Amino acid sequence: MTCRATRNRLSAYRDGGLSGAESQAVEAHLFRCQACGDRWRSLVDTLDALAAAPRLRCPDGVAPRVLTRLEVESRGPGLALLYRPMWADRPLMLPSLFPAALLFLIVISGALALSSDPGPLPPVVTRTLPSPPQWVPPVPSWGTEVNPLMPSAEVTAPRLRAAFPADALAEMDEGTVFVQTVVARDGSVSTVTLLEGDRALAEPLLQALRLQRFEPGRFRGQPVAVSVYRLISRMDVRAPIT
Description:
Blueprint: H1 3-8, H2 10-15, H3 20-32, H4 34-52, H5 62-83, H6 93-115, E1 159-160, E2 176-183, E3 189-196, H7 199-210, E4 214-215, E5 217-219, E6 222-224, E7 226-233
C-alpha cells in the first residue's frame, strides 16, 4: 500500500471502518514508513486532545438577535431609496462628470503613448544564483528509544520482571495518574512522561517507575523499544499495561 492510500485511510482505520485486509495493510505500512507513522501518531494525539477539550455552549437568545439585526440592516437602504424626494435622485451627477471626463482623457493619452513604437528593447541578462545547500536532519530509525513502536499484532508488549512496588504509592493522594513509559531494547526504562496527574505528589511514583526492568518488546524476534501507556491508581495497584 502506498503512502497516499494509507494516509487517506487513517481516519477510517481509527474509527474501525476498514475491512480486516485493509486494516492489516495499513498497520504494516505504518510500521515500515516513518513519515506515515508520524502522521498517524499526530492524528491520534490531536483527536484525543479535541475529545478532552471542554465543549462551548452558545448563550440563549443570540440567534434571534442576529436575525433581527440582519433584517433591519437589509431593509434600511431599500426604504431610504423608496421614500426619498425626486430632487434628491441624482444630487451629485454634475460634480461627478468632471472627474469622469478627466479620467477618460488620461486613459486615452496612455493608450496613445503605449501604441507608439519605442524601438528595440535592450537584451535582458539573467543570472542564476547557486542555491545554498540545505541540511536535512537525520531521521532516527523506528524501534529505537528515540522513535519507539506501539504494541500491536506484530510488536509484543514488554513484560514486567518484578512486582509493582506498592510502597511507591504511599505519598500519593487517592486518584490515578496516567503515564507514558518507553521501554528500551535492553529492558530498562528510557523515559517516563506524566500525562495526567499531580507531578509533585506523583514524583516518588515516577522515580520508582524509572527503576523498573522489563522483558523488552520484540518485533519479528528482535528486541525493540516500545512505548506503553499506563493508568496507575492508588486503589488498584496492578493496573494493566495497555
